[in-house]
Amino acid sequence: MSPKTTPRTPPPTVHRPAPRARRRFGQHFLAPAWARRIVQAVDPQPGDVFLEIGPGRGALTLPLAASGAPILAVEIDRDLVAQLAEQVPRNVTVMTGDVLETDVLPVLRGLEPQHPPDAARLSGGPQRRRYRIVGNLPYNIASPILFRMLEWHQRERLFADAVVMLQKEMADRLVAKPGTKDYGILTVLFSRHATITRLFDLPPGAFSPAPKVHSTVLRLAFGPPAVKVVDDALFERMVRTMFGKRRKTLVNALRDFDRTAPAVVALAGLDARRRPETLDLQELARLADLFSSVHRPPVV
User: Over the stretch 178-222, which tens digit does the pLDDT of each residue have?
Assistant: First the structure.
């Protein structure tokens, strides 16, 4: 006689309350309708692999994952990581970490390729992988994250583009033109390495809790430098020095950078009375290369 078995009662489903937004992480959670609009703007394609920075509750993660693309979602908040990990499909890897300190690229490169739901309709061989970034960036650390992206591009040449949400004031600086008040270090360093397009603005009510500022979604399409320079590090140091004293004349703004500034500015054919904010990329590149040539050892 076989022993009786008692049917096991499945454990009750645990419904975790949604974690509250934490001010120290600069969290503002995006409404679903706006998230769908951003994913439409991202326009995921076969072969895309995504790094999502700050997925939060998954407003962008889940609709983006429906494309079938592999996604590495990096989140600093452990409570949000635990909640999101229970919801995402297999093509999403949720990682706990600070994107400013964690080396996420080896994990990203190791993601298993997947096909979109309509892959059966695609012809030809395997799709070439295209690495992309998406994110609703925390406003309190958006600038360091942007420079982290720029560092990845300059070092790795890995990412094709980034579609990111920023505070509108920062977006204005990224797309500013020479001679305007928003034109500065951020504009110059990023416009040299990326074509920047403003996609659309979002009101405070697009988030919960609502921030006190408006937001903007930008696309940064990375590529070869718009202007080439002899010394990249010197170019960046020069730009940072100049725009740190943007209201001074060009010569006075550069005196602390190099004592030969008056002679170099004259050699570049630039009016010494101009302000740093009036120089375009080509003029800045010419100036940097002249500074570099002044201190280059003579060829014997």
Answer: 999 999 999 999 999 999 999 999 998 888 777 788 999 999 999
Under 8 Å between Cβ of 64 and 30 = no
**Is residue 283's pLDDT more than 60?**
yes
Q: Are 75 and 81 in contact (CB under 8 A)?
A: yes
Instruction: Say if residue 53's pLDDT is above 90.
Output: yes
d(CA 209, CA 28): 6
Find all residues with CB under 8 Å of 114, minimum gap 6, and list them.
68, 69, 70, 91
How high is the pLDDT of residue 274?
95
Domain boundary among 222, 253, 274: 222
How many degrees, rounded to 5, is the angle at CA 68 between CA 66 and CA 72?
A: 95
d(CA 298, CA 300): 6
| Count of domains for the chain | 2
Sequence-ordered list of residues with C-beta below 8 angstroms from that of 26, at least 6 positions apart, any chain: 138, 139, 140, 141
Interval 130-162: pLDDT, tens: 999 999 998 889 999 999 999 999 999 999 999
* CA–CA separation, 55 and 281 (whole Å): 34
d(CA 28, CA 37): 17
What is the chain's percent helix, strand, coil content, to nearest 5? 35, 20, 45
Alpha-carbon gap, residue 33 to 36, rounded angstroms: 5
Same domain, 185 and 54: yes
Indicate if 53 and 111 belong to the same structural domain. Answer: yes
pTM of the model: 0.84
CA angle 284–287–289, rounded 5-degree value: 110
- Predicted local distance difference test score (pLDDT) of residue 10: 41
